[in-house]
Design brief:
The complex is a heterodimer of chains A (about 300) and B (about 290). Chain A has about 300 residues and is α/β, with parallel strands linked by helices. Chain A has 2 domains: about 1-45 and about 130-295, P-loop containing nucleotide triphosphate hydrolases (Rossmann fold, 3-Layer(aba) Sandwich), CATH 3.40.50; about 60-120, Alpha-Beta Plaits. Helix content of chain A is about 35%, strand content about 25%. In chain A, helix 8 links the parallel strand 10 (about 220-225) and strand 11. The radius of gyration of chain A is 22 Å and the shape is elongated. The two termini of chain A are about 15 Å apart. Chain B is α/β, with parallel strands linked by helices and about 290 residues long. Chain B folds into 2 domains: about 5-60 and about 130-285, Rossmann fold (3-Layer(aba) Sandwich); about 70-115, Alpha-Beta Plaits (2-Layer Sandwich), CATH 3.30.70. Chain B has helices spanning about 20-30, 50, 80-85, 110, 150-160, 175-185, 195-215, 230-240, 250-255, 260-265, 270-285; strands spanning about 5-10, 35-40, 55-70, 90, 95-100, 120-135, 135-145, 165-170, 190-195, 215-225, 240-245. Classes of the chains: A alpha/beta (about 300), B alpha/beta (about 290).
């Protein structure tokens, strides 16, 4: 079983459209949406939810006003400006958006007035799609602990793939290079970087190259909408070569990518369209590369 | 002319045009006069410098506090590993292990240590740079590749520069910690979206986020098309104001791909950004 994670650095380069299509091309495989705070993959995979679970990401503090003596020890020890003093200064409250869940206020409160309990940070789902099982999640509104939820989604996907002996896990990753991205790629078999031919796409892709190298994960590249600026695309290909990253191909700018979103389908499930053909080639090249990697 | 106002440009989905709107808004505002700051809080993938091309005038490393254990004093009582919620300090028999990249810097371990064996040292997470792009004051942070936690860097970026000016915050995508840290203290939020199913789905999540935080906001529809009513219908159904629509135009995509500012390169697009400023002025007064 091979786990392939699609990431980009920059947002909006086509991770979800590509992931959905790879999942459709991979034969019966598991697909996982690890962009848990702006999940879109379900919009084109038609998942039928079979199981829903709460996600307990961590603990949060809250002050019991009945017990609070207003001594202010909590505000002294909090490093995250998460303790709010009420108007008269008699009691204190916790700002849940600033609370880092460290529990220091609760530990040091002499009145034991600060509760520190596990909270539900979101939900995760196991679904069935026309292309195989799907694991996805929804982080609660303005919640944190996205890295833990990503790890949970990947774990569930792995368990399903092992149980059903499925050949691939296709992971739709989040943008950026921080916590949820690191949680999405550590220990994966390959990352597929999808970028776009703009100075931003080029800049962000380099940081993702370095991230993949930092975690020692084989990385491959494809350029979405490569025909928008062939000059920048050329520069991106050169950089990939210099970094020793295999280029799997370019995907034409093609209106059918948006049409697929509107029809709630993976791009390759629509007939015709240059993007669909390009994505098929990217997939075939990726399989060849992974096979080569296995031989070494 | 706007002053003493912090506006965050955010979105759920990435690539909808946050940097385009914020960098061009900074240009429009600087032409109108007054002191303008462009503050790039997308510390994982900062892009504003590619368009504003600032002259960097100062830089400093950003550190987060992590525990330093003096094993001479340590009695291996284990209180530190008990209070730590992040498994960043672990006491096993007669050994103390610290995992610095798990540490959130809460300081709990050093506070709880009964024998004063734990002090704190700084761990470098990246660089903060300040500069100027013509009349625009520029600030951004670059998180070191491999670092997981961006909020401390975002907080450092946000606390830099003069208060009282007009500050435009280019926020990271998403709806979790990095986005929340960037917009929480703003006076106003502009959510940039595009009229596609993914764009609208993530706009919905972003609206939920800013509503929860209680910051006033409105929407800018980027790559808008006359006959595409996805964003208009969605906003009207949720009772959310559309501040402006920036039309879909291949010239904008080309200018962007080259790292140029729309405000400089396409004069007939300037009006969109100056109009947003005027609307912002009215919104801020409310």
């Amino acid at each position: 079983m091979k786990e392939i994670v699609v990431i980009s650095g920059k947002g909006g380069t086509g991770k979800t459209s590509l992931s959905a299509s790879l999942a459709a091309l991979a034969g019966r495989s598991v697909v996982a949406d690890c962009d848990v705070d702006a999940a879109d993959l379900h919009l084109v995979m038609n998942p039928r939810i079979k199981r829903t679970e709460n996600f307990f990401g961590g603990k949060k503090a809250s002050v019991n006003p009945e017990k609070c003596s207003g001594c202010g020890r909590c505000i002294e020890v909090c490093r995250f400006e998460a303790i709010i003093r009420d108007e008269e200064g008699h009691t204190y409250q916790v700002d849940p958006f600033s609370c880092e869940g460290c529990g220091v206020c609760s530990f040091f409160c002499p009145e034991k007035a600060v509760d520190f309990k596990l909270v539900v940070n979101g939900q995760w789902f196991i679904s069935e799609t026309p292309y195989g099982p799907m694991v996805h999640a929804r982080l609660g509104v303005a919640e944190d602990n996205s890295g833990k939820l990503v790890a949970l989604v990947r774990n569930q996907a792995k368990m399903i793939a092992q149980r059903e002996d499925l050949p691939f896990i296709i992971v739709d990753g989040p943008p950026g290079i921080g916590c949820p991205v690191i949680a999405s790629i550590t220990g994966a078999d390959a990352v597929l970087i999808v970028t776009e031919p703009s100075v931003s796409g080029e800049h962000d892709m380099e940081r993702v190259f370095h991230l993949a190298r930092y975690f020692k994960i084989p990385a491959y590249l494809c350029v979405n909408k490569f025909d928008i600026n062939p000059g920048v695309t050329g520069k991106i290909y050169e950089k990939a070569k210099a970094e020793g990253i295999a280029v799997l191909g370019g995907i034409h700018y093609d209106r059918s990518v948006i049409d697929a979103q509107i029809k709630k389908k993976p791009v390759v499930a629509l007939n015709g369209g240059t993007a669909s053909e390009d994505i098929r080639r990217v997939w075939i090249n990726l399989l060849d590369q992974i096979k080569e990697e296995g031989k070494e | 002319m706007l002053s003493d106002l912090t506006v965050a440009i955010a979105s759920g989905k990435g690539g909808t045009g946050k940097t385009t709107v914020s960098s061009n808004l900074a240009c429009a505002a600087s032409q109108a006069g007054g002191e303008v700051y462009y503050v790039d809080c997308d510390v994982e993938e900062p892009n504003g410098h590619l368009f504003l091309k600032p002259r960097i005038t100062g830089s400093r490393r950003i550190y987060v506090p992590v525990p330093a254990v003096d094993e001479e004093k340590c009695t291996y009582c284990g209180l530190c590993s008990e209070i730590c919620q992040y498994s960043a300090i672990v006491c096993l028999n007669k050994t103390i292990l610290t995992f610095e990249n798990m540490c959130h810097g809460c300081g709990g371990c050093s506070l709880v240590c009964p024998v004063g064996a734990i002090s704190e040292k700084g761990r470098d997470i990246g660089v903060l740079e300040e500069g100027r792009s013509g009349p625009i004051n520029f600030i951004h942070g670059r998180l070191t590749v491999g670092e997981a936690m961006s909020p401390p860097m975002i907080k450092a970026v946000l606390s830099t520069g003069k208060k009282g000016a007009f500050r435009i915050i280019d926020a990271p995508p998403g709806t979790s910690c990095p986005a929340i840290t960037s917009i929480k203290s703003a006076d106003y939020v502009i959510l940039v979206t595009e009229p596609t199913p993914f764009g609208i789905n993530d706009l919905g999540l972003a609206i939920d986020m800013v509503s929860e935080l209680g910051v006033p906001f409105s929407v800018v529809v980027n790559r808008s098309e006359t006959n595409n009513h996805l964003a208009r219908n969605y906003c009207s159904a949720r009772g959310v104001r559309i501040l402006a629509e920036i039309p879909d135009d291949r010239r904008v995509a080309e200018v962007y791909s080259r790292g140029e500012l729309v405000f400089d390169a396409i004069p007939d697009f300037r009006g969109y950004f100056t109009d947003i400023l005027i609307s912002l002025g009215k919104e801020a007064k409310r």
